[in-house]
Each structure stands twice: as structure tokens, then as C-alpha cells.
Specification:
- The protein contains 13 helices and 11 strands.
- It is of the alpha/beta class and 344 residues long.
- It has 2 domains: 154 residues, D-Maltodextrin-Binding Protein, domain 2; 145 residues, 3-Layer(aba) Sandwich (D-Maltodextrin-Binding Protein, domain 2), CATH 3.40.190.170.
């Protein structure tokens, strides 16, 4: 008799438990697959040193509930300058790209690409995120910014002509990554040619350009050190990178998975990226030396000349920013102060 009374109660409890598990969003086994798109090869620092470790960490912290498929070298189609719109429009869930590949679209963040603003990658990357929190949220309002970061100060990598002074740059065609760097090279007397980095090896090999402004980090996977002979450390510039997520995709996640993304975003992620990019310079430099290439570093006196020659680029950015109703000089000085602060 007791068992007959117990059996309906047990069956009812099991039915209620099954119903609870059937409620959408209640299952701890919910799986989300995110597509991450970028333009560099799997051997690059971007892929192997930053994006894949990030994806692995997110997958581990979500206990496998977030799966991230990474598509390098634009495997999902399009060109590198289209990556921002791909993630904005939801064509992909995540993208790593350069804001500067769409010239003039993100004018405030260009302050970190102005001549001689940059420090180490770790200092500049943290400065970028601090600046983003204060001034850049509206500029990137169409995406969920996971991190803004930079590479170490870029160098000039030349096929046949060494660059030791401003005079050596006169009329020389050099690839530039962004509008700000383009303007700086032009102010120095060079003929800048804008192009995304995947096009650089062919452009140098075919003589479209005589060299390129790049960090040593990316010269290795692109094998630029094999088609150039001279490298000049200038301290002139950096380029800003953006790692972003589609806003609607982020908002669709349950709170605990949003928390996983949040823990792997922001200032800490920018600092980690900066350390990765700073460390990646050494192998690129070593590869150039192993080829017997020649590496120059500008003297202090020559750097002073380059700073004077490129000052109009800074003044022009300040004037353009003032024209938008902002205090360009204050923003420029704040960016420099943040780089100095995080470089201490």
C-alpha cells in the first residue's frame, strides 16, 4: 500500500524535473558557436599568439558551452577593410582588424597613430583601452569592443635602399598601414602607398613599393625579411588593432556566458595583447639578422629632425578634431600622458 502511494509521487517529481530541463535557457549544456574572422595566416602572432589562446581560454572557462571557430586569411570572404562591417552587420560574430583600414571612419582613435605618440605595445595598448572608456565609445558604438591594442613601434623595411636620414626618404615609395602613418611618411618626403598588410610581400617583390612600414612581428609570417635587406628603427608610429564582437550576438548570450566574454575583455586583455606583440618583435629581428640584413637605429639628433618634420601632421589632426567641436590638443596630450603612465 505504501509503495502504491509513493509511486505516483515519484513519477510526478520526475515529470516536473524533465519539464524544468525543457525550459529554454535552463540547461547548463547550452552550446554557442561563434565565428571569428581575420586576415592574417595561422602562423601569425595575431592567430597563434593572441586569438587562438583567447578562444581556448573562453571555451575552457565556459566549460565548452562557447565554441569558437577561427577563420584566418579571410576564409569567409571579403577583404580586410570589410571586417569591421562584417562584425557590425552580423556576417561574423567576432573580428580582429585595423580601424585605420577604413580611412577617416574612426578619427579619434588615430591620435595613437600620430608621430611619436606610441610607446611599447603593452603601454600603448593599455592607454588605448583607458582612452576608449573616456572618449571612444561613441566612435565604436556599432560593435562590442573586446579590446583595442597596438603593435610595438613600427620600423621601415626596405628592399634595396637603406634609410638613415630624412634625405634618404625623398620620393621613396613605402607602404603605409593607415591614414595617420601615410601623412607622417609624406611629411618626411616619402611617397606613401596605403594597403593592407597581406598585400605587402607581393607589392615589394613586384616593385610597386620599395619598402614597408611594419613591426618586425609581422615580417616573419609574411617572410618580408626574405625580400628586404635594410631595416630602420624609427620609433615613428604604431597601428591600432580592434578586436570586436557583434552587439546582437553578445546580447543574445545568457548572463553566465556574457560574464565569460566580459572576463576576457577590456584592459586586462589589452595588456595581454601588448605583451604578446612586444615579445613577438624579437623573432622577427632575429630572422632579419640571420639573413644577413642590416638594421639601423636613428640617432637622437635624427629623431629630433623627424619629429620636427612630422609636427604638422599632429597640428592638422588637432585642428580637424577642434572642427568637430572637441578639444584636439587636450585629447592629444591625454593620449601621450596615458602612454607614459602605462609605460612607467
Amino acid at each position: 500500500m505504501a509503495f502504491r502511494n509513493f509511486l505516483p509521487t515519484m513519477l510526478c517529481a520526475l515529470a516536473l524535473a524533465a519539464a524544468a530541463l525543457a525550459v529554454p535557457g535552463s540547461s547548463p549544456a547550452q552550446e554557442v558557436t561563434l565565428k571569428l574572422h581575420h586576415f592574417l595566416p595561422p602562423s601569425s602572432t595575431t592567430h597563434a599568439g593572441f586569438l587562438k589562446p583567447w578562444a581556448d581560454k573562453v571555451m575552457a572557462e565556459s566549460q565548452g558551452r562557447i565554441k569558437i571557430d577561427i577563420y584566418p586569411v579571410m576564409q569567409l570572404g571579403g577583404r580586410a577593410p570589410q571586417l569591421y562591417d562584417q562584425v557590425k552587420d552580423g556576417v561574423v560574430d567576432l573580428a580582429w582588424t585595423l580601424p585605420g583600414y577604413t580611412a577617416g571612419r574612426f578619427p579619434l582613435v588615430e591620435v595613437f597613430e600620430l608621430p611619436y605618440v606610441t610607446g611599447s605595445a603593452v603601454a600603448t595598448s593599455q592607454a588605448l583601452m583607458a582612452f576608449y572608456e573616456r572618449h571612444l565609445k561613441d566612435e565604436f558604438k556599432d560593435v562590442r569592443v573586446l579590446a583595442l591594442h597596438s603593435h610595438a613601434p613600427g620600423a621601415l623595411h626596405m628592399a634595396t635602399k637603406p634609410i638613415r636620414t630624412i634625405e634618404d626618404l625623398k620620393g621613396v615609395k613605402i607602404r603605409a598601414p593607415t591614414r595617420a602613418v601615410n601623412a607622417a611618411l609624406k611629411a618626411l618626403g616619402a611617397t606613401p602607398v596605403g594597403m593592407p598588410v597581406p598585400q605587402v610581400p607581393e607589392a615589394i617583390a613586384r616593385g610597386v613599393v620599395e619598402g614597408a612600414a611594419l613591426p618586425y612581428e609581422v615580417t616573419l609570417p609574411l617572410r618580408v625579411h626574405e625580400i628586404t635587406r635594410y631595416h630602420t628603427n624609427t620609433g615613428l608610429y604604431t597601428a591600432v588593432f580592434l578586436f570586436a564582437m557583434n552587439k546582437a550576438r553578445y546580447e543574445s548570450l545568457p548572463p553566465d556566458l556574457k560574464a565569460v566574454i566580459d572576463r576576457n575583455s577590456g584592459l586586462a586583455l589589452a595588456e595581454r595583447a601588448g605583451r604578446v606583440w612586444d615579445a613577438a618583435e624579437a623573432p622577427g629581428i632575429a630572422a632579419a639578422k640571420a639573413r644577413g640584413n642590416t638594421i639601423f637605429t636613428l640617432s637622437d639628433d635624427e629623431v629630433a629632425r623627424w619629429k620636427a618634420a612630422t609636427r604638422p601632421v599632429i597640428d592638422r589632426w588637432i585642428a580637424e578634431t577642434d572642427a568637430r567641436g572637441l578639444d584636439g590638443r587636450a585629447l592629444y596630450e591625454e593620449a601621450r600622458a596615458l602612454v607614459a603612465r602605462y609605460g612607467e
